């Protein structure tokens, strides 16, 4: 069926990048010769790790809307933490003839196989939010995850300049988890060196699972006789497990807890006082920018950002967006004003 397309995707001219700035295509315009041989619009594949967390449900919805509102087609698959399934799903989309692949990897190294297969079929690949390691990725678009960790640690140090700290990390297979931890310790290390704080428990959390974070936090409390002054959790899902363990000991609200992602449950915990802060990553900005760049690259246009990140094989062209620290003091001005969550949702006035 003949499809007439005239698309404009208006974006901000520049994005804040990690210690740098990068120009983003101002617009992506589809022309008649950008259609497939069957006069169909180009198709974008979106291979997601999971839909088990609130955050990724939002990403799927926003990315799909960003693509479809401009007349493109999008195929979405979610593997829910299964590496073999994610590879199989990506292969299926490649065989179906997608024109560009966007991937949220579950395992940063295992998904290198997907990149190789896509490139073998002449398909470019964008890593969405999480970096794929040891592969020649065409583009990586994410938030500055190292900065996320720094924001968490900065807020905790303001509240607890001296004391015993627990770190509940993310999934060791996720490159973002390593970046977050690096950011946290960028800030904490001087205080550690001075002897002001001690890291008395430090553990990764397989698949970012709240129940695993709960087990880790329960263990940390047990082996330290509850003598804990601050907890930094790698995301809000793991922070939820932390708060549950603290609740079991009657300590919820007495020990500062940091998370990230601004999940609704976490924002409600901030209002209740059982979680101290989260880090908001405006994922609508992320989804819109990835959509614009997917269109741009699918048209075989070049894009050369000024930032690159080494993934173990090459310097990957990268666009990094700025995260925002959120506490009870700025929750309304950031989360609610941005309509990420409504006031009714946050304060339970439904």
From TrEMBL:
The lineage of its organism: Bacteria, Bacillati, Bacillota, Bacilli, Bacillales. This is D-xylose ABC transporter substrate-binding protein. Keywords: Signal. InterPro entries: Bact_Solute-Bind_Prot2, Peripla_BP_I, SBP_2_dom, XylF. The keyword Signal applies. NCBIfam families: xylF. It comes from the Bacteria. It is found in: Cell envelope. It comes from Planomicrobium okeanokoites (Planococcus okeanokoites). The gene is xylF. Gene3D superfamilies: 3.40.50.2300. PROSITE patterns: PROKAR_LIPOPROTEIN (PS51257). Residues 44-301 form the Periplasmic binding protein domain. Residues 1-19 form the signal peptide. The keyword Signal applies.
